[in-house]
Amino acid sequence: MEWVLLLVVGIVAGTLGSLVGLGGGIVVVPALIYLGTIIPSFGNISPQVAVGTSLIVVIFTGLSSTLAYMKYKTVDYKSGLLFFIGSGPGGIVGAFVNKAMDVQTFSLYFGIFMIFISIILMVRNKIKPMKTSETRYHYKRSFTNEEGVESYYGFNPLIALPISFLVGFISGLFGVGGGSLMVPAMILLFMFPPHIAVATSMFMIFLSAITSSIAHIGLGNVNWLLTLVLVPGAWVGAILGAKINTKLKGNTVINLLRIILIILGIRLIFQGLN
């Protein structure tokens, strides 16, 4: 039964991660830490093992989501690769910083991070692109939607690379995709259409999770048995989340996720302070 529960965790993580561009680690990491305390067969799951295992799952979530979004032609590959120049090294640095964190410290900072993400999800639909001249963009892109309406967006790499480095650092540190920061930045600062922002974020998450995972594998932070159970569920969930993203606003799901994140975040903060 415990392995079925783990499969469900993978499905939920993949669906929510793909739906809102988070990557799914925000579900997997706290779930693994909690399940490790109540299910003896899982063993004692340290924050480092939870993060390393989560990042392997995020690779498959990101890949599955990217393949699904490819069908809808909403992935901006060139922008995603440019963002990866920053997020790749950031993920490696985050993995080594994670190594020095004990359970209390990790719980405290991860709890704060979860509450921060819930706030981002609360205001994300209210985010409006900054009014700026297209001539200020060093890298310009365009997108034509299904109705034939063309929109323009772009970014300055000198601004985008530090942001993507921070996203990668958070990915390596907490085992999450980092899309909670990247998607709002794409929409607010660079005028990405929302669907393009989520799809491109998942592509970047896929790439940065690979580099972060390599670092965690080298540090021995991956439980491969748990990974083998989580990955199939995450793969299916990511495809489902991509379909929901293109058809529905998903406000009900996002509202539910916000509440869960706040509750879990407060619980982790109390654990970290005790």
From TrEMBL:
Cellular localization per UniProt: Cell membrane; Membrane
Keywords in alphabetical order: Cell membrane, Membrane, Transmembrane, Transmembrane helix
A Pfam short name: TauE
Source domain of life: Bacteria
InterPro entries: TM_pro_TauE-like, TSUP/Inactive_protease-like
Membrane topology: Multi-pass membrane protein
TM ranges: 7-33, 45-69, 81-100, 106-123, 158-181, 187-210, 222-240, 252-270
Keyword Cell inner membrane: no
UniProt entry tagged with the keyword Transmembrane: yes
Family: Belongs to the 4-toluene sulfonate uptake permease (TSUP) (TC 2.A.102) family.
Protein name: Probable membrane transporter protein
Species per Swiss-Prot/TrEMBL record: Litchfieldia luteola
